[in-house]
């Protein structure tokens, strides 16, 4: 179900056109990766959606409510790339401040502190936090109001590998709760791990029909063979076209997946996993932005 509708959003800086009549919608439970080189307009797009920028034209609505209406901000939160925390206040002060605006009780603050795991330092002043701890506080703030959508602008910047893993897990957990996420990042590997939906921004336009998984790509079936049997022997009798790599079988997209599964099971082969092979995001990025590597 569509929850965010952006229609013909246009933004200029002086004579420069940054967003050109951008139209898109986000559905419940979407994770969308927003990709583009420095200066492509990713932050401008997020800020314009949130009415933090004056735009030339266009409309933005969540469940039909315009971003000119304060109620809009009950449903969406923003994790900006620049830190806007107050250094002399504690993490808890920040949470209590937002809770007071939205009439939330302390139980709800405690829930998010627990969920993000910031209890050991939430009562210390923010100036004593590391970069990752500040990022965790910002994330805690962004989920306190139970939004339907979170816009995250480069959330992985400056995080150590442990914090990146934790943030990816958290994003998956938010997604499992039905929250939709629009995430801009330059880290293509992380995005590839999180989602199949990538939107490119180029020359002020959004190209959003690039799915990492294409209906025409083969399936990859990982199997475990009974003792003294080989996958090659089982498949050579099948009359189905295939390609093998170790204990993995790649199907031919012209044939139904079920045919392969039926044949394997009939021959006593254990199916361990079935995936659609993903296209490589870095390759897509290089060809889309015509990056030539010498
Ligand atoms: N306040 C401003 N005044 C004038 N130009 C601006 C302003 N903010 C951004 N720009 C310009 O708009 C363009 C888009 O900037 P934006 O920050 O949205 O890009 P981005 O894709 O988020 O880049 P990055 O990946 O570097 O964060 C850039 O060329 C930038 O110089």
From TrEMBL:
Family as reported in the entry's similarity comment: Belongs to the ABC transporter superfamily.
What molecular function does GO assign, one term? Answer: ATP binding
Q: Which InterPro entries match?
A: AAA+_ATPase (IPR003593), ABC_transporter-like_ATP-bd (IPR003439), P-loop_NTPase (IPR027417)
Domain of life of the source: Bacteria
Q: Name the PROSITE patterns on file.
A: ABC_TRANSPORTER_2
Q: One Pfam family for this entry, by name?
A: ABC_tran
What keywords were assigned to this record? ATP-binding, Nucleotide-binding, Transport
Give the ABC transporter domain ranges.
4-228
- PANTHER family, alphabetized: ABC TRANSPORTER, ATP-BINDING PROTEIN
Name of this chain's protein: ABC transporter ATP-binding protein
């Amino acid at each position: 179900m569509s929850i965010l509708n952006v229609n013909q959003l246009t933004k200029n800086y002086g004579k420069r056109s940054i967003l050109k009549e951008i139209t898109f919608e986000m559905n419940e439970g979407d994770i969308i990766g927003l990709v583009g080189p420095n200066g492509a307009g990713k932050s401008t797009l997020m800020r314009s959606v949130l009415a933090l920028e004056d735009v030339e034209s266009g409309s933005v609505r969540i469940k039909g409510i315009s971003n000119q209406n304060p109620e809009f901000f009950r449903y969406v939160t923003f994790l900006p790339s620049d830190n806007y925390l107050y250094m002399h206040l504690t993490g808890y002060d920040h949470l209590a401040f937002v809770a007071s605006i939205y009439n939330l009780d302390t139980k709800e603050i405690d829930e998010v502190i627990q969920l993000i795991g910031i209890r050991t330092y939430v009562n210390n002043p923010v100036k004593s936090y590391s970069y990752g701890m500040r990022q965790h506080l910002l994330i805690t703030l962004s989920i306190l109001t139970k939004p339907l959508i979170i816009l995250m602008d480069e959330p992985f910047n400056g995080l150590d590998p442990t914090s990146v893993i934790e943030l990816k897990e958290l994003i998956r957990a938010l997604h499992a709760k039905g929250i939709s996420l629009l995430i801009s990042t330059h880290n293509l590997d992380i995005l590839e791990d999180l989602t199949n939906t990538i939107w490119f921004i180029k020359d002020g336009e959004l190209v959003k029909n690039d799915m990492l998984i294409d209906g025409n790509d083969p399936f990859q079936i990982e199997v475990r063979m009974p003792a003294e049997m080989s996958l090659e022997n089982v498949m050579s009798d099948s009359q189905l076209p295939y390609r093998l790599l170790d204990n993995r079988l790649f199907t031919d997209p012209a044939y139904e997946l079920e045919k392969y599964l039926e044949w394997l099971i009939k021959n006593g082969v254990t199916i361990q996993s079935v995936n659609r092979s993903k296209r490589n995001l870095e390759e897509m990025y290089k060809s889309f932005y015509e990056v030539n590597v010498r």
